[in-house]
Amino acid sequence: MPEYDILIVGGGPVGAATAIALRGAGLEVGVVEARGPQDARVDPRPIALSHGSRLILERLGLWQALQPATPIERIHVSQQGGFGRVELKARDVHEPALGYVLDYGALATTLARALEATPGCRQIRARVITFDAGPEAAVVRFDGGKGTEQATARLLAVADGGTLAAAPAHTRDYHQSVVTTGVSCTLPHFNVAYERFTPDGPLALLPMGEMLALVWTTTPDHAQELCELPEAAFLMRLQHAFGRRLGVFNRAGARTCYPLILKVADRIAQSRIVALGNAAQTLHPVAGQGLNLGLRDAWELSATVRNCERHEIGSAPHLGRYRSRRRLDRGGVIGFTDTLVRLFSNDIAPLKLARGLGLAALDIVAPAKDFVARRMIFGARG
Hints:
The protein is an alpha+beta fold. It has a domain at 4-42 and 102-169 and 263-344: FAD/NAD(P)-binding domain. The protein has nine helices and 20 strands.
């Protein structure tokens, strides 16, 4: 008999959300994570949670603990040096906001603390060494400081993108890096988010409190240079890339930089093992879809587990149902973000013209615009 019905590797937001969503189900649930909630380091990277993710977090009883989060009421999309733009508005899709902006550290810390307080969920403070699957259970080997130990589970949910691979994956190097920081400017943002496509990659400015969170995708060399520039010179570069729609940029915080690679697991669920979040797909930050997709992974997996007979958890029929439920949403989001990057990250004249015509057409065709907005909020099944 396996020790656990479901054992989750990774206590980050996606893994924690999965465990919390299973509370009260009468199951043996465990989470393997090397860090405790007190160790959840401050991570100032901005994240944009969709309104759909807010609804998930509300069902988990966690949304109020994440306040204040800054609502996005409009999204303005344009391309540098070309015509055409589109505005997506929350009121047009009858929602209070398209999304909400906060820093990753706040989300991770809140979920880690909630996980710690979840009754019936055993926390294993350890580093995973290996895992494999048998016909009746998965086996995880880990080191918690007392040598190698192991545990068995009907289902192993790998929700840590930095751990051993749960399945073979397809990867693509975008040859881009992203710079993130907080900036302020002379005009108020009015809760508008901006996505401006440049030849080197998208530049996003997200309302965050009274300031703006910057997510600037560019070439690796340029990103490194932007991180090393004095503040005044950095702000001049940003002004040139974005323009003066928000007035003059006058302050920037500390900058961070990391490379961008698409990684997509070939099969997200098989042989007693399922991959969630970044373990299943690591996406480009364009349109801010990665974490939102991961939270939907967590919610859908917990729903399928709750609807299973206990002995069926982790079986081939169960995992087949999960794959079927995630296929459309996952494939749609991966294809959407990857296509945006490849279509807009260039300065090819015919493509620039086509992009401009496409943006202009989308802005005047209300049903198409609402379709895009709802898919960004709720995923492909929204």
